[in-house]
Fold:
Amino acid sequence: MAEGIRVAYIVPEFPKLSETAILNEALGVLRAKVDVRIFAFARPREKRRHPQSQAPVLRARVHYIRKFGWSGGRGLAVLRSLWCVFRYPNQSAHIRSYMREHRTPARYLAGLTRLADFFRMSDRNVVHVQFGHVARVIAPLTDWLGLPLVVSFRGWDASSFPVQVPKAYGALFKSSRLVLARCEAMADDLAGVGCPREKLVVHHSGIDLDGFPFTPRPPVEHGKVKFLTVGRLVDKKGIPAAIGALRRCLRSHPNAAELRVIGGGPKEADLKQLVTNLRLDPHVKFLGETTQEGVAEEMANCHLFVLPCQQAWDYDREGIPNAIMEAMASGLPVLSTRHAGIPECIEHGKSGLLVPEKDVDALADVMMELIEAPERWEEMGRAGRRRIEEEFNATRQAERLVDIYREVIGSK
Structure:
């Protein structure tokens, strides 16, 4: 029982299908008996939901910030903010002074003012914000209320955003009690843009081990090895490299492999066109977005996992992709790249094989290496499972997060 910890957990959208790490984390702290309230800017537009996100114990703790004056466009938000100036003159004046220091747009005043009331009424004693660019908006409120602020960075916000908005996080780093990075590589990135090292903590995402049980690899039918990739169809996932490597494999091993792709995103049409142009339609299957249960089922039925992540054109980088950890938990040997925090998770030669980013030939070589060596699959799969059990399981990471909450509350 996590006595005395009352968390305001703030996310842009909840529950988002592609953000299983956030869902797992929220469920983990709830199971640890933390009094947590989840505040989301909006509901996701996608219709599918992970079944775990619909549990009554979780839904009862989710509040949508639109109810606090955050929705309706910029014009309406500004009008609401002006209303707050007259309705809550003293409170608004204090928050406005902190907003000026943080250079927070005036349209957020209404939402921050109403949130201040809710935090007081529900007696929150720590605020945990997902994504740095969101925390910039919330920081004036936590400063004014004197609440300790914990910020979790997850990828784009630690890599691409600081390039697009130089010095974006100066005031935030000053206000934050602790800054959580998903891997050592991300911690280095954040230190490079001004975060004090003493505030940085590496806190890994965790996988629900029961949801992704270890499964021995199924027999290869008709001589065809099934490769699986899972992720949003965006530049940093490197899916074109996987398609190109598959093409090379098929040149030397005709009909020996197929690639199954789970996910959706802005690059979906481009990827399908690439497959058609390369005449790979019989060998590449696009399965669309699905739930964690759907991903787990596909992982149980495939032989190898490939996700050749890379730095995107806008400098966007990964932390450690959840899909890689789910694949390792399931017993899939993983083929990936030496990108961001991936080498911190995959032990090259033990639980998977790593190649340089954007090196299609090297990726094809390791794909063919494992196609030709099915006797290595089980040993690599078991090594991956052990790695996830030891360091990346949801229960252990939830316990670490509870300790982090205790630390920041105790240092107030």
Notes: The domain at 225-391 is CATH 3.40.50.2000 (Rossmann fold).
